[in-house]
Amino acid sequence: MSPLTVLLKNRLRLIRNWHRVLRRQSRFKTGFILIFAVGLLASLQFLFARGFRMLDGLGQAGVMILPRLFAMFFLAMALMLIVSGAITAYTTLFRSSELLFLKVHPVPSGAMTLYKAVESAGLASWAFIFIILPFTLAYARYQALSLWLTFWTLVMAVPFLLLCAGIGTLITLAITRLTARSKFRKYMLGSLAAALLIAGWFWWRPQRVDDESLFMLAQLVPGFRLAANPSLPPAWMAEGILSFSKGEWMRGIMFWNVLAWYAVITGLLIEWPGGRWFQVAWQRAITPATGRHARGPRASGQVWRRLLVGFSPAVRAMIVKDIRTFLRDPAQWSQCLIFFGLLGLYFANLRTLNYHFLPEAWRSTIAFLNMFSLATVMCSLSSRFIFPQLSLEGQAFWLLGLAPVSRGRILLAKVAVALSANLIVSISLMMISSRMLNVSPQIHLIAIGVGAMTASAFTGLSVGLGALFMDLRQSNPAAIVSGFGGTLNLVLSLAFMLCAILPFVVIERFQTVIRAELGWNHPLTAAWIWLVLLTVIAVAVPLRLGYRALQVREY
Asked: Degrees (nearest 5) of the Cα angle 514, 517, 523?
């Protein structure tokens, strides 16, 4: 039996034992996750169904878009899977504690790399499944197709997932291997990336379209030509699903075989360089810089001293330590960069979609939806990265306990780093959104105020509850976040988001009715007072409880 088969069987055995792990979890956490998952699936299906109905109002354009909608959808999913696979692959390949165990056993590097690629594909696939299930259900109901369409979608999704996640793994492996500390190799790597981008542009550049209607549609719908390209996996995925749903079995099997063989070829490409590149890439990922490359922290230390003038040396040292720890872990900053970068890219291109020409009511609605989207991403990332910060100090926390620094200043250092990052991101993105939409000064002020308050509240909840439910025995951030404290922090953050934004939405929507029928002339003033009081409670109470927990804690 090959080592890869043994590793995959062991992983399947662990998956089968998950029900035992679930029994140990609190009922509150399990119930909340189930309710949230069902609500998410129902909401996505509702939104997709409304989108299909909206296509009816587009006339002939909607009729032309609908047959190619699957290809466009799976193009977006492929890009998401490649990026997610690349990020997950870095964690599983170079940051997993299991690697040290596997490296002392007779497991070839190629088999180990391929095993980790399959693991990263599984970790990156859950969001994909959660999105395609409501999409296919809504599409089947809209087109009056059989619900077997969902089953065939899952069948086609297996090789598609492995292919896209494998491409992401190859990208991570190549970048980690080729990124050296010499300037020559960095320049060579940059030149290679530029050459690949130019080659990709020439390959995917718009081709001549004879059909005038398709040409006009390609000008209106971004990515239309790329999604309809028959030489790319999204088109194979869409054609295979539709073929199975229409009873064209041989055509569907053909597209499934094409995806499966390309997934196998990608696996061979991962296994072949894995045996040659993995060892060097792993050593470069875990080995700190030495010699002249280690001088960077000294220069950056002087910069931080100038920027953090108002803090004492002890607090400044802890703040610098947290910032450097975050920047040295690509698994953390890459996720933040991708999520906030995508939001920033969307906000910056609102005028490209001509949203600023919409009526004032629609622009206000889009502005509030942007507030919800930004608050949701900040809530998720705060729970993932800020909440476990104190717990990740680990058993070395006794050093801070013996240091001549009060525990209140330790909490202050965590709050300062998290609050600064959240405020900069939220206010900047809200200003871009309001500017691109050209909303009224009142909506602009609401967007900035809500962004600042939600950033403050998420910081206070995450840091305070992180100190209250600190677990120094756990070194896995995912395990820390999945505990009772992490679940409670996520629930309270989502509740704050709804309670903070919904009053402004209701008042802005029915402001005329409130003033005319209820005789209330200052509804926005009341909403601002409510937001400030709610934020003060969300910041002060968790931080106070966390401070008391730190004061009485023994190390």
From this structure: 20
